[in-house]
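Hey team,

Sharing the Golgi SNAP receptor complex member 1 run so nobody has to redo it. Sequence (233 residues) first:
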Amino acid sequence: KQARQLENELDLKLVSFSKLCTSYSGTRDGRRDSSDTTPLLNGSSQDRMFETMAVEIEQLLGKLTGINDKMAEYTNSAGVPSLNAALMHTLQRHRDILQDYTHEFHKTKANFLAIRERENLLGSVRKDIESYKSGSGVNNRRTELFLKEHEHLRNSDRLIEETISIAMATKENMTSQRGMLKSIQSKMNTLANRFPAVNSLIQRINLRKRRDSLILGAVIGICTILLLLYAFH
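Structure output:
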């Protein structure tokens, strides 16, 4: 009877303990989805309730363990039939229930502690973020100035690159013009070298024309003289 009474109490306590863990997680999630200015709701009270219920369940588990030990001593004592199957079955059933309750308690407790530790870590991270946001307002002006200066430097670099590109293009154009001028100069030199030969040829042609004119004039004069002499004689 004492074992059944403790088992019933443990069953009710474990159900409430599991609901506490679920409500703790749901409350934390609801606060996380709400605004950052929402105060913590029943955080410390839930922690105190968890500690109280954990102590009570551990005490009940201890009492149930003691009763199971007493039942085991009774079944092993003198005067009790060693082959009483009903007693052994009852003892084994109570041991299984105790084992199940113990396993469920440790599992629920571990889940609760894991959730609380995670929420504490997330809460510290959120506090760090909020403190950073609140403290970053002082450095906003300096950061803005740094960004503007960085933008100015980038603009200056871009202008310098454009100027260098224009200079390189001008250099290439001047190089090409220099090549063209060199080719023109070489052609002019070639023509200038050819002019003396042309001049000499023209002079020779003029000399030959002048000689031919003199010869033709001499022939005409001789023929005229001969005709006059023939006419007067």
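Residues 32-42 have pLDDT under 50 and may be disordered.

Ping me if you want the raw files.
A.
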